[in-house]
Amino acid sequence: MILLNFSHPITPTQLDQLSALLDQAPTRVIDVKTHFDEQQPFVPQVSAMMEEIPLTTGQWQGEPILVVLPALNFIAGVLLAELHGRMGYFPPVVRTRPIPNVLPRQFEVAEILDLQSVRENARKAR
């Protein structure tokens, strides 16, 4: 499984937590820089960012991919549309949460959100 990380660096502890949730370790972690110019349109910036990810068309469509979304909601929204277009479905995403009462602030893996299942279940309400 390929882990695309659009957020803060993944720690070894978080990788262990992911491996436990998935019953397998990610085979590859790709850290993607998501520094955006907020004075420029986001869609072309997301497209340019995606072009820098070293995956082939076959990998986008055939490899299992897990995503850590960027924190800025506008970028995350455009990114999800771009990922769906490349993959043909919504990828599962990692949700992190702050560890309570820990300084400096640290994050743990909370769950994996199956966005494709969310979409399919939502279609039943149409």
Tell me what the structure shows.
This protein has five helices and five strands, in the order E-H-E-H-H-E-H-E-E-H. With 126 residues, the protein is of the alpha/beta class. It has one domain. A hairpin with an 8-residue loop joins strand 4 and strand 5. Helix 2 packs across helix 4. The N and C termini lie far apart (33 Å).
Give structural attributes.
126 residues; alpha/beta
Estimated share of beta-strand residues: 15-25%
Helix/strand-derived category reads alpha/beta
Number of domains: 1
How are the strands ordered across the major sheet?
A: 2-1-3
Q: How many distinct beta strands?
A: 5
Based on the structure, what is the oligomeric state of the protein chains? single chain
Estimated helix fraction: 40-55%
Count of helix runs? 5
Contiguous runs where pLDDT drops below 50 for at least 5 residues: none
The profile of the biggest β sheet is:
3 strands, parallel
Amino-to-carboxy terminus distance: 33 Å
Gross morphology? globular
Structural Rg: 15 Å
Pattern of helices and strands: EHEHHEHEEH
Please state the average pLDDT score.
96
